[in-house]
Amino acid sequence: MVTPCSAAVVSVGNKSAAARCGLRAGDCLLSINALPLRDAIDVQVYGGEPEITLEFERAGRQRTCTVRRRYGEPLGLEFADVIFDGQPRVCRNNCDFCFVGQMAPGLRAPLYVRDDDYRLSFLHGNYITLTNLEAADWERIEAQVLSPLYVSVHATEPDVRVGLMRNPRAGDIVTQLRRLVEMGIVMHTQAVLVPGRNDGIHLDRTIADLASLYPAVRDVSVVPVGLTRWHNPCLEIYTDAEVLRVLRQLQAWQLQLRDELGVGFVYPSDEWFLRAGVAVPQVDAYDGLLPEMVENGVGTVRLFMDSRKALTAALVEVGRRQTWVTGILFASTLTTFARDFERETGVLVEVTPVANRYFGETVTVTGLLTGQDIVAALREQDSDSALVLPGEIFRGPERQSLDGMTAQAIGVETGRPVFVATRWDHGITEVEWSIDPVG
Fold it and tell me: What residues pair up with 36 in beta bridges, in sequence order?
């Protein structure tokens, strides 16, 4: 019986120490310097020594190679799974606003995994709550200096946080953050706001507590709760008037903390600005932190607006008649760009905002659109123009929408040529766009 490889190599960098050692895709890495490997973090840490001995298996035969790393030379290995036992730590909380808990039934199994794993936080920027850390986890974070980490705080008052997460272990968050500060760990934090639960004076307390831990706590992103049609009926989204009130509260904190700390520290997600009809800040207002916050919905509109020249150059190659698909929230911003694009290039553009009937029309962000809603919206049009789809709706190695459709399938269903627009962020000012045809 063949034992499956837990550390399967999928690629080896051309100019890397592992390549000089002779490793290939398909090999199974067993150890580095005779130390067993739990995950990609161990590979990163153990493989950082000037001289490394790699033990690996190929076609059932074990091999060993010792190589000296040149200064700055990467080890150069990528794996099928960064956690070698394939089992991420799962969430022990029972938050009634958890988006995973509001997922539609019948979707792909990975979409229902409530990961709360400090290893994925370090490696990929996943947000964690710190409520499931055991003594050995704290020891490893300190020993391997796993920094930065991304922490879902939501509230710092013990009773408020316990009530939000329905977990009695959730109340020690400030103590836990201080412990990470003492370890030298940098943290990026977030607060998802639920109307009447952790906003108002509770939000003031959270911001003040987190700001007292600056610069170890580098920032806090503030995001409004998102609710699908499967949400807990006791929850509601913010009204437009409430959105403006919260935004003004956050902006007041920014002004105060910029004076006290030299940075804004508190960064509202784009949704607050778009719903309130308030212009998004200039790039300098994000204090160079956009790469860390953009996946949390902070600064994506600013990156889009500041990369319009590159986007225009890429889009003009698509054709003389185009249809751009977007979510409801971003439709006004995209339409403004479309009219400028038309005047500059002569290309005719139709912007198609797609209502999210799959998850519910309170879900308005583009990244959560499904293929079937896009197809339904486009079938209502009498057009054969080239279709430009946002790349963020296609996820995973299969590049599928949340309901399992590929861009090619959407093209088949609509009978149109399809292009996928993908933004590549190389920093706060280095943004590229690719507009790729779908075969």
Answer: 31
